[in-house]
Amino acid sequence: MGALFPSGDKTLDQPEETAILRARDFWTSLVLIVLSLFFLWETTSIPLFGENRAGVSGGDWYNSAALVPFGLFGGLFLLAIGLLVISIRAGGAARAMSSVGLGWDGSEALRFGTIGMTIAAYVIGLVPRVDFIICSGLLITALIYGYRGGHAQRMILTAVVVGVAGLYAFVANLPQSDWKLHDDDWITLILWIALTAFIFVRHPRDRMSRVIPVIALVAPAILVCAMAFGFRQNVPNRGGLFFKTIEYHYYVSLKPLWSQK
Length: 261
Known about the structure:
Elements: H1 14-43, E1 52-53, E2 56-57, H2 67-89, H3 92-101, H4 106-126, H5 132-146, H6 152-172, H7 183-202, H8 207-230, H9 241-259
Antiparallel strand pairs: 1-2
Keywords: Membrane, Transmembrane, Transmembrane helix
Transmembrane segments: 21-41, 61-88, 109-125, 131-148, 155-174, 186-204, 211-231
Protein name: Tripartite tricarboxylate transporter TctB family protein
């Protein structure tokens, strides 16, 4: 395994390391462009400027549920274009094409293969069926730990963990009528806790081991709460294990405090 997929621990001089990073930026930007265009296209099905689609009126544009997705994925598209331009100017495109076309680079193939598997499991299997905070926490943990330092074993491990969670959610609760079930929430939560515990045990002195759980929990929680309660947008799987409890206490315990004034 080590001979086929280098661990990334070898020391490179600065120009060579920069060239490798720019090649990775090139492929990453292409993936982000495709993803952002796909979600922008999907968002066009939501009424924006007062249209009436499938009996649903968009109302005023500033109240449309499409506003936040257009902003998020539009921003992602612009950032990806910027990353692509920087990569091309720095020679990243030539390096990337050379690696794929002339000499098979096993470490790059592993990196992008596992990233593709992770994102596919998240988008197709987890997001529609699993609590947003739980599945996003697992994704953030996997991406930070798996791709920090370029270790092949970490990439494989984290991709397998997210892949197992996504595959279970997709197979066990394939029809939309089953998306409100919580068995996949629990499976994903257990895998997230197990991966976090593994990181603590393997790297007890690494400061990042203590930071990852905080980022993985706080970031998606803030995002989903801002979308649901601040911007009043639709969020994935409102009946999820965590968000269902948050939404209940928001409307029952918190909102009455200022609504009665």
